[in-house]
Every structure is written in structure tokens, then in C-alpha cells.
Amino acid sequence: MMKRILGLAIIAAFFAACGNTAGDKSTADEGNVSEQVTFASVIENPEQYLGKEITLEGKVVHVCMHSGKKMYIVGENPDIRLFISAGEEVPKFPMELLGSEISVTGVFQKIEAGADMEKEHEMAEEGEACETEEAIAQQPVLADMMLNYKAHSVK
Amino acid sequence: MKLRKLNRVTHRDIGYLIAGMTIIYAVSGITLNHKHDWNSNYIIDQRTFTTEIRFSKDSDNEEKVYQLLEELGETRNFKTSYYPTGDKLTLFLVGGSAIVNTETGEGYVERISKRPLFYQFNFLHYNPGKWWKWFSDIYCLSLILVTITGLFIVKGRHGITRRGAVLTVIGIILPIIFLFIY
Fold first, then answer.
1. Domain chopping of chain B, boundaries
2. Do the interacting molecules here have an ipTM over 0.85?
3. B52: CB partners within 8 A, 6+ apart
4. Cβ of A61 and B85 within 8 Å?
5. Which end of chain B has the least Cβ crowding within 10 Å, N or C?
């Protein structure tokens, strides 16, 4: 009996260890139509894309080490970062994405006042508010914008 | 079935069902409480270095990056580099990164790997998806049920009317005291 219980526990642990992360998710929602845009065009005219589902390419330069629910990407200009929020419907972003060129799809939107405060609070708690958050505050554009994540693929 | 027996059976069986979940939430709860002191998600192995190579925004740094990677023995792991305004150049590596201060030449290589078990526990604790959210809601309701039924398991002087009442009240007063302290 004990052997059976132990066997079941090992199988359960194995499945837990294979936790499905966003890193495994490599396709966009096939049914949804998203507009393919360049990072540069989003920087040039962010208002144009507000509320739209867009797909853009960029380099992952920061992944939240604790919650894994946040990451930042850049385009050609390394000083303009875009905040990607996983939200509660999506598993965490894996650290393996750091430095990867990805194509990411999501709804482009303004960071709401409440969400912004929550983000700052979370980052401060994590002790990494710091550089990334400070750098973003200095950005001339996209400082108050985010992409509500839907899917991504690593290039 | 008598009410007391129903209470005991409910407490026992739901208690068995949620034992695993309780361990997951309790262990990850402790580690998340202490996340400033200890990274329970990742094992971070860090080694420092100093380089004579100097990077600047004006020059093409690609050759220098490869020189540095050679020095660090990380050429094969190189993914890409990131050099925003400031004095910090990051080289992203497979399984980690190298960060160098371009003014002083001081830096460190950081290797990151998932901490077994704790990573998975925290992964679940942070609500990985909507199904888990509902599942954990059911768990929380079950925990409330187990707690309430637990109050009425024992009869007599150790039960809820005497010793049990005193201990339960203490358990309620303690968090209230913290509310006043903070």
C-alpha cells in the first residue's frame, strides 16, 4: 500500500515539475487577428495602436525573477522598453527568454493608475523596482504603455 | 448520520484531500515571505571578474564583446548583448548573463537554474492560469470548512466550549494585535 502511495506521489511530483510555462507556448491564438507592426512604428505613434491586438518583435531584456508575470522588450533603440504583462490568465515567463528575440502578441494599452501602482508595489517588493522601473520612467515614450500578453514565439 | 459524525467525516476526508495543497501553499508562503533573503525560485551562481577591455557607445563593440566572452570562457553560450544608456553592458548567455561596468571594467557572470520543487511550488502559488485559480478557490473554501469542522471535533473540557474556546480566541486576538502594532 505504502509503495502505491509513494508511486502516485512521485508521478504527481513529476507532473508538477513539468509545470507549463509561457515558454512552451509558441503560437498565437489562431482565431484572433492581430496586426503585425514594427517596434519603431509603435514608438512613433503609440496612440494609433491603443486598444488593438498587435504583434511585434523585440529582444527580451528583463524577466521578473519572482512572479515571472512581467517582462520587458526593446527594439532597435535599447533605451525604449515595452512592458509586457502576463496577467492572471497566463503562466509565468521563463528566465530562458532573457536575451531572446521574440515575436509577441497582445493588446496594446495604457497602464491604468491602479495597475501602475500595483506594478510599482510588486517591483519594489521584489527589490528590482530599481533599475528597470527607473529607466522606464525616464523614457520619452511607452513609459505608461503596456502590452497585455496573449502569445509569443521565439525567433 | 448524526451531525457530529458528519462533522468528523467531513473534517477527516477533506483534510486528506487538501493535505498536498496545504503543504504547497505553506512551503511557498514561507519562501515568499523571505524572498528578500533567499531566492526560492532560482539558484544563482555568481562569479566576479575584472577586464581591461573598455566599451564605449561610439564604437562598434562586437569584436570587444567576443574578446570578453573569450576571457570569460563563455563564447559558446553567448546569445546577444544589451547596452542601453549608462555604464552597464549585459551579455545574455544560455542559462545566465554577464554584466560589466563599462567605466571600471568590473563585472560578474551569473548562472541561473531553477530550484527544484520550490520553483514548482511558487509557480502554483502565483496562479499560473484560470483553471488553477478556480481550483485554489475550492481549496481555500475547503480549508475554511476543515477549520470550522475542526472546532467541533472534540467534546468535553478540551472542546470548543472550554479549552478550545480559549485557544480559538487567542488565535483571533493575535492577528488583531498585529493590526494595532502596524
1. 3-39+116-151, 42-114
2. no
3. B105
4. no
5. C
